[in-house]
Structures are given as C-alpha cells and as structure tokens.
Amino acid sequence: MELSNLEVKEHIKLTEFPTQFKHKFSNKSLKKQLKKERRELGEMQNTLYAHGKYSVLVCIQGMDTSGKDSLIREVFKDFNVRGVNSFSFKKPTQIELQHDFLWRHYKALPARGKYAVFNRSHYENVLISRVKPAIVLSERIPQINKLEDITPAFWENRLEQINNFEKTIRQNGCIIFKFFLHISKEEQKDRILRRLNTPSKNWKFSPEDLKDRKLWDEYSKYYEKTINATSKRHAPWHIIPSDSKHHARLLVAKIIKERMQQFTDIQNPTLPEAMQEQISHYKEQLKNS
Q1: pLDDT on residue 1
Q2: What is the set of domains in the chain, with CATH numbers?
Q3: Distance of CA 121 to the CA centre of its chain
Q4: CB-based contact 128:194 (threshold 8 Å)
Q5: The pTM is what?
Q6: Nearest-angstrom CA–CA distance, 179 and 76
Q7: What contacts 249, CB < 8 A, 6 or more positions away?
Q8: CB of 116 closer than 8 Å to CB of 108
Q9: Angle at 285 between CA 281 and CA 289, to 5 degrees
Q10: What angle do CA 182, 249, 72 make, to 5 degrees?
Q11: Cβ–Cβ under 8 Å, residues 60 and 71
C-alpha cells in the first residue's frame, strides 16, 4: 500500500475511505513488522533529542473504541521516556475554562527534541463541541450566551484559529502528524460487546458509549468537515483504516518514520573541532584514572 494514499490532499468523503484493507500478513507478522519500525523510530527520536531544534506533535483522533490508547502504547513503546509525553484531554477544568480553548493544548506542546502525543486533541473543540454545542456555553465566550449564538460562522472561525495555531507552531519547528483512526460502525459494536463480555475490560464501558453511538452519523459528518477544513501541507491528516488494530499501528509507525526521514538536517551533533582533537588525550586520562 502506498502510504501517500492515506494522506488527505483534497476534499474527501469519509464514506469512500475503507476501514480495512486486505493484506497477506497475519497479526503475528504485523506485530513483528511494528517491532522493527518502532525500534527505528526510537533511534530517530534519540537523534531528534540530541539535535534539539525540532519537536513533534502527534494527534490521534477517532470514534470511541477506535484503538487510540493501545495504538499509542504500542507505537511509542521503544521511545526513551524522557523524549515523549502523552496527554489525554478530558473535560476542561475550571482553570482551563478561564482561558481560550487552545490554552491547555499550548501548554502541552512538546519542547524541542521531544514528541508529544495528544490522545484526542484540540480537535475535540470542533467535534464533540459541535455535536453537543451546549459545551461551548461553559467556555463563557463574549457574545455567546445561548445556543442560537453559536452560528456556522462561529465554527468557521474556530477552524481558522486551529489552522493558525498549527501554522504558527510548524513555522517554529514543530512537525505535526494528525491521524484519524477510521473504523466501521459494525466493528465498534463488536468492540463494545467485547468490553461487556470480558470482565477485566468492563471498566472501559460507559453507558455514554451507547448514547454517542446513536450520534454516529453526526460525528462522521463533522469529522469529514473538520478534516477537509484543516488538512494542510504543513499539518496533513491521514485517514487510517483501523478495523484491524495491528494494521493501524503499523501504518501509523510507517507514516511517522517515512516523513521524519525527509528531515535530513536532523543529525547527531558533532563535538567542536578543538575537543575532537583531544579525544585521544581524554581516553588516556580515563585509562589512568
């Protein structure tokens, strides 16, 4: 499969994207391939850290049960813990609600040399909030006092703010990946049933899952609108067929590695020439110490 086919480069319809691809690999083979990819990613991250000029932001979005948590766990397993942070954005706190909707995401951006993985992200503010606009009222935005004040222009403006946010951080050295984990409604049903049928996974289930499932078409509509409005060359969306978790993880790892390889200036720094000339002397000092 050409990974470039998963990148959103023009207006798309989500219904035209498959949620799975036929391939010849077993789950065991996919896991073996992922192990190789993530080991290489870990080595590349060490170089990113030593180079110290770029950072990487990975945004993971998807319907409930699309496999976000397990994908993050498996893809980034071989990273040095000092080089990657994962953030799961839940309901905003009272302090967060006293700031603009991007404030808490700005705070979580990665430092130079590091990765940040957003498990759900700033896009929740044009997805969940758009399906359930009453959430916006809690943000206490001037001139937004009732649901009728939340017009289409409000959402267009918010999407523009997100594009500006991403453009700004990219211009300052943050490499952005955005993945939509695309599953079928049937696969979601099977995964929810597995949670209910497996006692050790019961804790993952919430009655809210069933309520949100009834809003599947609404969420799909706004995912499509959002992806079309915010997939830019500097911050492209990738739609990942995710009915197979093992395949989805491998695709995400491959896409990250392939794009990071394009940044050929990310190299391990070299010692100053004066220090290099003294390496033999330093070795002798250590041997005699």
Answers
A1: 65
A2: 3-287 (3.40.50.300)
A3: 8
A4: no
A5: 0.93
A6: 15
A7: 30, 34, 67, 70, 71, 74, 75
A8: yes
A9: 175
A10: 95
A11: yes
